[in-house]
Specification:
Strand order of the largest sheet: 2-1-3-4
Shape: elongated
Largest sheet: 4 strands, mixed
Oligomer: single chain
Number of strands: 6
Helix content: 55-70%
Distance between the termini: 20 Å
Radius of gyration: 30 Å
Number of helices: 16
Structural class: alpha/beta
Order of helices and strands: HHEEHEEHHEEHHHHHHHHHHH
Strand content: 5-15%
């Protein structure tokens, strides 16, 4: 055990001093922060462009009916044709040309938004929503009902379905599934990312030491199993260290950048700007119940906070640490076995496929597990040790029975012990094997070797 701790110390101290570790520890948070800040910044900047849309309405149903916003204006063109406006569009300064056919009332595909650039999603959705509402009003007016606008305004109802989950003892838990979906997705994807990133580092480290013949010196003092476990644990500690550095620095950079350069960035995404503008500018044409009332916002925020509180964070964080470490150790031992069996990284391709397939499959199943955490696919894949670190993390925010969690942990530990035993036998033989092309048949022979 003392020798393993010495190898762990060597692996950790050697790797954290490398330029690549220092550079990635510093650059990583800036890259992650850039992925979060830049898209929001670009959306924020785009929202400030005033977009004037030319409208050619052959149906004459929407003249002066489409609600304008601070950034979206309409210019209704009369006595013209779509062909003429197409010809004159270049240099006109219009953002897009909206053509409404005469058959718009009974043909849903009779509206076109044309431009020399791709119209933004928010603009398309705003036009679509406004036209649908206006068509509904006009069709209802055809019934000649008196005070139809007031009737529509008074009967319009917004319904919010709250999900309630019963637990043992009759206790009820409410909340939004969206928060749990995001939490499960982030946790599961982080485990997938770190297993792949640091597991492959183990394999490259073994190949590097084997190529440099350093391993021959080391196995003269320690057993191959101790060398393998020391390397795996040492790189795991390096991964945890880098993960903590990334989390702390990324969070600090994002908070600092948002407060310094974009104090109102989080308050004005494209959809919120459009919604806000519709509320302010289109008060005369948009139904009051389309607006997001303050009490609705409070209810939504209450729903989000309820969902956050409902998640068992002690189980979530404890499970994240366990499944990260156990999943990494499981795959790292296999990566170490592959590294010991080959002479160069190019020879690893034939052995990498059986390892990468379960990880990639887990990513596909994760989508199903988030949408249906109680389903049979999510259940079985959260028990299979090669996919459970990812799938179980995706399910935990929704609440997983403790017996399922315990069974998954037990199966993962047993599988880890089995793969470690198998990897150690391959490692012990392959670490000193040079110049021989290894295949699966050869690996099977190594597994059957006796001490």
């Amino acid at each position: 055990m003392n020798k393993i701790s010495l190898i762990v110390h060597r692996e950790f101290s050697t790797r954290v001093r490398k330029k690549s570790f220092i550079i990635m520890s510093i650059l990583g948070p800036f890259l992650f922060a850039a992925f979060m800040i830049i898209p929001a910044w670009m959306t924020h900047m785009e929202d400030k462009d005033v977009k004037t849309i030319a409208v050619v309405d052959s149906s004459h149903l929407f003249i002066q009916k489409l609600p304008e916003t601070q950034y979206v204006k309409y210019k209704y063109l009369q006595n013209t044709s779509i062909a003429e406006q197409k010809r004159l569009f270049e240099g006109s300064g219009y953002y897009a040309l909206l053509y409404i056919s005469e058959s718009v009332s009974n043909n849903p595909q009779s509206v076109m938004l044309m431009s020399d650039k791709q119209p933004s999603f928010s603009v398309v959705e705003q036009i679509k929503g406004a036209m649908e509402k206006e068509l509904e009003r006009q069709k209802l007016r055809a019934y000649h009902i008196e005070n139809i606008d007031q009737i529509l305004s008074s009967v319009k109802t917004t319904l919010d379905i709250q999900t309630v989950k019963w637990v043992k003892g009759g206790e009820e838990k409410t909340g939004s599934a969206g928060v749990k979906m995001v939490t499960g997705y982030v946790g599961a994807f982080l485990i997938y990312f770190f297993i792949f990133l640091f597991g492959s580092q183990v394999m490259r480290g073994v190949i590097e030491e084997k190529t440099n013949r350093i391993v021959e010196v080391m196995v003269s003092s320690v057993k191959p199993f101790e060398l393998m476990m020391g390397k795996i644990i040492g790189i795991a500690l390096v991964g945890l260290t880098q993960f903590l550095i990334w989390v702390i620095l990324t969070f600090s950079i994002v908070v600092w950048a948002q407060k310094t350069f974009f104090p109102d960035l989080s308050k004005t995404p494209t959809e919120q700007v459009v919604t806000k503008d519709v509320m302010q500018k289109g008060a005369t044409t948009v139904q009051p119940d389309q607006q997001l009332q303050p009490q609705d916002q409070e209810l939504q925020m209450h729903d989000v906070f309820s969902s956050v509180k409902e998640i068992n964070w002690a189980v979530m964080l404890g499970s994240f640490i366990f499944f990260f470490l156990a999943g990494y150790l499981l795959y790292a031992s296999l990566f170490a076995a592959i590294g010991s069996a080959v002479d160069s990284e190019t020879d690893t391709q034939q052995f990498m496929l059986p390892i990468t397939i379960p990880l990639i499959l887990a990513i596909f199943v994760m989508v199903n597990a988030i949408e249906n955490p109680e389903g049979p696919i999510a259940f079985w894949f959260s028990l299979i040790p090669f996919t459970s670190p990812i799938i179980m993390l995706a399910r935990i925010p929704f609440g997983v029975p403790y017996w399922q969690l315990t069974l998954s942990i037990a199966l993962l530990i047993l599988t880890f012990l089995g793969t470690t035993w198998m990897a150690a036998k391959i490692y012990r033989t392959g670490i000193l094997m040079y110049g021989k092309k290894v295949n699966y048949k050869e690996l099977w022979k190594w597994l059957k070797y006796k001490n």
